[in-house]
Write a sequence for this structure.
């Protein structure tokens, strides 16, 4: 009986893999047929990141990202985009020191490293024969924690404690990203893009405590697609 159950489980997952492969082949076929409307390239950006529900003085926390991007656009206004990028996020905050650091302003800096995959439904305000295409987009964003540290400093900027982000925060993040920007055709088949992007996390990240800490970030992303 156990062998038969294993066979059923194996057969089920094989069928699921076949469906995924067929879906991928179909998607690639559609993109190949419409290659003139599909562009791939690189993207990078910077800004600030923070977390919600922190009862301390949150300060500016530099954030940045870099990776690959793909955009498919129809002949008129709609399109679809997907990015795969490395993203440095986290939060910084200060608070009054405790013994033996009484009278000092201490700080904690959380630097979280993610592989982030945002999916975007894009609306272009111009058709594809225009060289300037303002656009807006919205869609889900998936984050997979890969590393990072939580560092605590005294009032003299001396590190007094360090731990791994994965010990205090969850390994998976999910939220919604919205962008406002434009694409410029700088040469035949080459597009430069600039987008103002805001990410709003929807899943609590801290493993302990009563706070509901969720990721937030705001920044500008630049891209070059071919």
């Amino acid at each position: 009986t156990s062998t038969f159950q294993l066979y059923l489980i194996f057969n089920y997952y094989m069928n699921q893999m076949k469906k995924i492969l067929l879906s991928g082949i179909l998607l690639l076929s559609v993109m190949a047929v419409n290659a003139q409307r599909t562009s791939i390239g690189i993207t990078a950006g910077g800004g600030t990141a923070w977390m919600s529900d922190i009862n301390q003085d949150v300060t500016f926390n530099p954030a940045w990202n870099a990776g690959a991007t793909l955009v498919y656009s129809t002949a008129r206004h709609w399109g679809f985009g997907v990015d795969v990028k490395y993203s440095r996020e986290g939060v910084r905050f200060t608070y009054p020191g405790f013994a033996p650091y009484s009278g000092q302003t201490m700080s904690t800096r959380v630097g979280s490293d993610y592989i982030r995959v945002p999916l975007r439904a894009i609306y272009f305000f111009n058709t594809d024969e225009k060289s300037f295409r303002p656009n807006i987009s919205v869609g889900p964003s998936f984050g997979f924690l890969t590393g990072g540290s939580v560092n605590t400093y005294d009032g003299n900027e001396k590190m007094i404690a360090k731990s791994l982000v994965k010990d205090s925060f969850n390994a998976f993040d999910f939220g919604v990203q919205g962008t406002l920007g434009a694409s410029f055709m700088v040469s035949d088949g080459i597009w430069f893009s600039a987008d103002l992007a805001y990410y709003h996390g929807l899943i609590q990240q801290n493993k302990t405590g009563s706070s509901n800490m969720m990721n937030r970030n705001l920044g500008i992303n630049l891209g070059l697609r071919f």
Observations:
- The radius of gyration is 22 Å.
